[in-house]
Write a structure and sequence with these properties.
Order of helices and strands: EHHEHEHEHEEHHEHEHEHEHEHEH
CATH class of the largest domain: Alpha Beta
CATH architecture of the largest domain: 3-Layer(aba) Sandwich
Radius of gyration: 21 Å
Largest sheet: 6 strands, parallel
Structural class: alpha/beta
Strand order of the largest sheet: 3-2-1-4-5-6
CATH topology of the largest domain: Rossmann fold
């Protein structure tokens, strides 16, 4: 529901979509671009992102321009905000969808003189929007992707069925091929990816579990295991490898976002915590297994792999309102997700992937 109806002649010419948070959030926002392009094929559509997520959207067939907000550099502080404001104002956007609820972004669109500003209605700064969508994101039981599409519907743009269009350039596929061949892995043969970190976005399944899972996949299923992670997660993967009996293929700290997309598009299954690469995998058609903590803010109903919620595993404990401190008050609840459960899910997803490919 919006506070102001769109005029009958509403036909935006220049649209800005704003999402300046993390990788998973951006992936789950990209269907909005498709919805807008379908409804307004002649409009100029731009997206404002953080620099490290920008490559997710570059090359997307339904976006014309990618802008970045460098909060720790060019756009830091008041002077940086004013610089960003000038950049946005100069582009004369007539419509803005603020998918990332933020006072800074709401103020940016208001001060830039964007005529139609769409955002959530249940925030103190909602008065800066003139088209408010009243949705309780927390505890709504609805997926973040669907909540994002609610804002697109406020300007008359729907999307059914939901589709992702994350571009993978030939250069990324070629670089991935070289990396896999250097490590003795046949890129045409099936393999499974494990991503043991989450960048601090959630409580993780123990490394001992990932190590034992990797060993069982390689010993019992005869499939290679590829380990991924950010450059900051290299020590984490070092620790994981020390716990393993078998030898994995390590690509942690070596892949760009586009190269990671290329890897996930070829993988049979990804096993990961609640983290951005899980959503990247879904977007490129990879089967996934999501290992989720019981923290309410990470609920899979909102943040799970879209269309694959049956692939989520949770520890058998009640939901937690908050997770504080280095230790889990329930004695590390993520350890309650058993290796047998995860391995069984891997086998199930491999079967689903085979049926999908044969169909």
């Amino acid at each position: 529901m919006s506070t102001r109806k769109l005029p009958p002649s509403f036909e935006p010419q220049r649209i800005l979509v704003l999402r300046t948070d993390r990788i998973g959030d951006v992936v789950l926002s990209t269907p909005v671009l498709t919805a807008l392009r379908g409804r307004y094929p002649g409009a100029h559509i731009a997206m404002l992102l953080r620099p490290y997520t920008a490559d997710l959207v570059r090359g997307h067939p339904h976006v014309d321009e990618v802008l970045t907000e460098e909060r720790t550099g060019l756009h830091a502080g008041l002077s940086g905000f004013l610089r960003l404001l000038r950049e946005v104002r100069r582009r004369r956007f007539d419509t803005a969808l603020v998918l990332h609820p933020s006072l800074r972004l709401a103020l940016l669109c208001f001060m830039a003189g964007v005529a139609h500003r769409v955002g959530t209605g249940y925030r103190a700064y909602a008065l800066l929007f003139n088209h408010r969508v009243y949705q309780h994101r927390k505890g709504s039981g609805r997926h973040e992707l669907d909540l994002n599409l609610d804002l697109a519907r406020a300007v008359g743009a729907g999307l059914q069925p939901v589709r992702f269009y994350l571009a993978i350039p030939d250069s990324a596929r070629k670089r991935l091929l070289e990396l896999l061949q250097q490590r003795g892995l046949n890129p045409e043969a099936p393999f499974i990816v494990l991503h043991p970190g989450s960048g601090g976005s959630a409580r993780d399944w123990p490394l001992s579990g990932f190590a034992s899972l990797a060993d069982r996949i390689q010993e019992e299923l005869g499939l290679p295991v590829v380990l991924t992670g950010s450059p900051a997660e290299i020590p984490l993967v070092d620790d994981l490898c020390r716990r393993m009996r078998t030898q994995p293929v390590r690509l942690d700290g070596q892949l760009s976002i586009k190269e990671l997309l290329a890897l996930l598009s070829q993988a049979r299954v990804l096993v990961a915590n609640s983290t951005g690469p899980l959503h990247m995998a879904v977007a490129v058609g990879c089967r996934v297994i999501g290992l989720y903590c019981p923290l309410q803010a990470c609920a899979p109903e909102r943040w799970g792999p879209y269309g694959q919620l049956d692939a989520v595993l949770l520890p058998p404990v009640p939901p937690c309102p908050a997770c504080t401190g280095a230790r889990c008050p329930r004695g590390e609840c993520m350890e309650l997700i058993s290796l047998d459960e995860v391995f069984a899910k891997v086998r199930h997803q491999l079967l689903n992937r085979r049926e999908f490919e044969e169909g």
